[in-house]
Amino acid sequence: MAKTKTPAPKSLARKPRGFQDKREDVLTAELEMIERVTHVYHLWGFEGIETSAFEYADALGKFLPDQDRPNAGVFSLQDDDEQWMSLRYDLTAPLARFAGENWDTLPKPFRRYAWGPVWRNEKPGPGRFREFMQCDADTVGSKGPAADAEMIAMMAEALKAAGAQPGSYAVRVNTRDLMSGLLDSIDAREEGTRLTVLRALDKLDRLGVEGVADLLGEGREDESGDYTKGAGLDKARIDRVLAFASAGKPTRSETLEAMASAVAGNEAFDRGVAELREIDGLLSALGARDEDVVFDPTIVRGLEYYTGPVFEGELLNEILDDKGRPVRIGSVGGGGRYDGLVSRFRGEEIPATGMSLGISRLAAAMSLTGELDRLSGPVVVLVLDREHLADSHELAGTLRRAGIRAEVYMGSSGMRPQMKYADRRGAPAVVIVGEDERNKGTVTIKDLIVGAQKAKAIKDNTEWRESRPGQVEVSRSEMVQTIRKMLESDQ
């Protein structure tokens, strides 16, 4: 009899670049982060709203906050009425449309928070996706540094709430007046020169002082051989820019003094220093520590988007990928004052300031550090004897009724593959019931987290079999209490 040929697959299973298939560990981490971050926004008095994924292309605007090319980086389609719609690239542009449409009926200032996916048609990279989750807060209709300082302090609180440890993050703050004053002081009048200088400053953390000096001068050739034309400044002007860029000090007040001495007697620059001094006083009143919120003269952000203070939330710790290579996630959020965005819908001046936290980037960073490995797995009840499968289901049901997530192994493999399955599920514990346990009315519970930690110190198989790390036998009536204590101690 001829063998039946397996039909060839009709399509190649693959996902588009820059898009994610999220397993439960990432989903749970993102949802938990969103809950914690929005709790901070809610606690600070902001109102939650939700806008649609699509906006008319003209309502979204003709630029992204971090790009200078018109109409770049969006996914668009034409509706049956021949109007162009685009997937939102952030949560701020839809807010501007919402505020412009409903301004007459909104409380003023209007303070809102929102979360959801956004889409950008740009080149993906480590921790940078084409579809990702953001969590925003904005104040529309408030002038002055007080609203900006509140946003900056709230970003520090949000990073901490999302799980960033003290010393592993910082919110870096600058203001557009300082950058304008710096450019005026070196007589950089042409728009192309001004953009080149600012882009060079933005690369200080990656290229160092020498690399930035090259970009401020004639230009720079990178490791691949690509050449970037520089701003063409002479040595005296390069030195002034570098003195400003290197003004960062341990405290905000010290940084202000260093920046003020680097560029003095300039109207725009003096205005920027005064603005940051006021923000510094407000940040101190809001409890923002110098370690968590710093003034950084190299923060640039969107050149056509922001009109005043700008800031970025950054993860400082270096992370290793699965091949042991260093990966620096860097910025996971940012914001600033954008007074022109809402005004274009109303024909009147409507100031605004806001912040956005990249939930997907935060989750990606936690994934690289291994912090997501055991966030959400269920307790797995193993099946050693299929004749007693109903007993296993009864045990799982008891755990679920007590509020403990649990499942019964539904495959057909033996003990070792079942343990491997539980490990891959991120199970914090397994419940084992063999003939001995059934006769005694007991269950054996193995704490997989503690067991794995203790097993690292065991030198041979004999010692492992004798000690059975993380394993305990208890009566059935004690099962729920024992597992609950295990889960609490593993947090």
Ranges where pLDDT stays below 50 over 5 or more residues in a row are 453-461, 463-468
Instruction: Please summarize the sheet with the most strands.
Output: 8 strands, mixed
Q: What is the fold named in CATH at topology level of the largest domain? A: BirA Bifunctional Protein, domain 2
Number of strands: 20
| Count of alpha/pi helices | 18
Tell me, what is the CATH class of the largest domain? Alpha Beta
- Shape by Cα distribution: elongated
Q: What is the name of the CATH architecture of the largest domain?
A: 2-Layer Sandwich
**Beta fraction:** 15-25%
Question: What structural category do the secondary elements indicate?
Answer: alpha+beta
Distance between the termini: 60 Å
Percent range of helical residues: 40-55%
Main sheet: strand order: 1-5-6-15-14-11-7-10
Supply the number of structural domains.
2
List keywords for this structure.
single chain, 491 residues, alpha+beta, BirA Bifunctional Protein, domain 2, Rossmann fold, 2 domains, eight-stranded mixed beta sheet, five-stranded mixed beta sheet, 18 helices, 20 strands, 19% strand, elongated, protein biosynthesis, aa-tRNA-synth_II/BPL/LPL, cytoplasm
Structural commentary:
The protein has helices spanning 24-43, 57-60, 92-102, 145-162, 176-185, 191-202, 204-216, 235-245, 252-262, 267-285, 343-346, 359-369, 389-401, 415-424, 435-440, 448-455, 461-467, 479-490, and strands at 47-48, 54-56, 76-78, 84-87, 110-119, 131-140, 169-175, 219-221, 227-229, 293-295, 309-315, 319-320, 326-327, 330-337, 352-358, 379-381, 406-408, 429-432, 442-447, 471-475. It is α+β, with helices and mostly antiparallel strands. The chain has two domains: 24-208 and 239-369, 2-Layer Sandwich (BirA Bifunctional Protein, domain 2); 379-490, Anticodon-binding domain (Rossmann fold), CATH 3.40.50.800. An eight-stranded mixed beta sheet has the order 1-5-6-15-14-11-7-10. A five-stranded mixed beta sheet has the order 17-16-18-19-20. Strands 2-4-3 form a three-stranded antiparallel beta sheet. Strand 12 (319-320) and strand 13 (326-327) form a beta hairpin. It is elongated, with a radius of gyration of 28 Å. It starts with 23 loop residues before the first helix and ends with a helix. Mean pLDDT is 85; it is low at 453-461 and 463-468.
